[in-house]
């Protein structure tokens, strides 16, 4: 019989696939140690959304599978102003850390009940609106001007839910 000899070389034409990178970080309230749960962090390359992630109970997010380049991040959460972080650089095969701080949105007041007729210093007032859970520091409602009272100072503030707060007022 005939004998075959030799080697065969097989060439596979495959595109070069660069390793992807990751952006990870913590979303905090007012640059404090308090973290924000449920914030949505979006990474954009130019105007295209490349990835999103939602923060966990520790405020941590991770956006993976990003090609190398510079990304603009935004973070948004209920009761907070949206924050932007431009120019976060990602290199293939590595993780870039980008911690984001969110400032509470000021509360929105829709109604004050009662808004007139204060006859004593211990009238309970209900304030209806939104964003009361995020109140702190300079954002807190400390006083309200009413129609027939020059200024009412609120004390013993209590938040029933995010649309209503009550306070004993001094007129």
Describe this structure in words.
The chain is mainly beta. Helix content is 0%, strand content 52%. The radius of gyration is 28 Å and the shape is elongated. It starts with 20 loop residues before the first strand and ends with a strand.
Summarize the structure.
The chain has 171 residues and is mostly beta strands. It contains no helices and 13 strands.
What is the helix tally?
0
Poorly predicted runs are 13-17
The amount of beta strand, in percent, is over 45%
Distance between the termini: 115 Å
Structural class: mainly beta
- Overall outline: elongated
Q: What is the CA-based Rg, rounded? A: 28 Å
State the helicity in percent bands: under 10%
Largest sheet geometry: 5 strands, antiparallel
The order of strands across the largest sheet is 9-10-13-12-11
Tell me the number of strands.
13
SSE order in H/E notation? EEEEEEEEEEEEE
What's the mean pLDDT score?
Answer: 75
Helices, strands, pairings?
Layout: E1 21-29, E2 40-45, E3 48-54, E4 60-66, E5 69-76, E6 83-90, E7 95-97, E8 100-102, E9 108-113, E10 123-130, E11 143-146, E12 149-161, E13 164-170
Parallel strand pairs: 1-7, 1-8
Antiparallel strand pairs: 1-4, 2-3, 2-5, 5-6, 9-10, 10-13, 11-12, 12-13
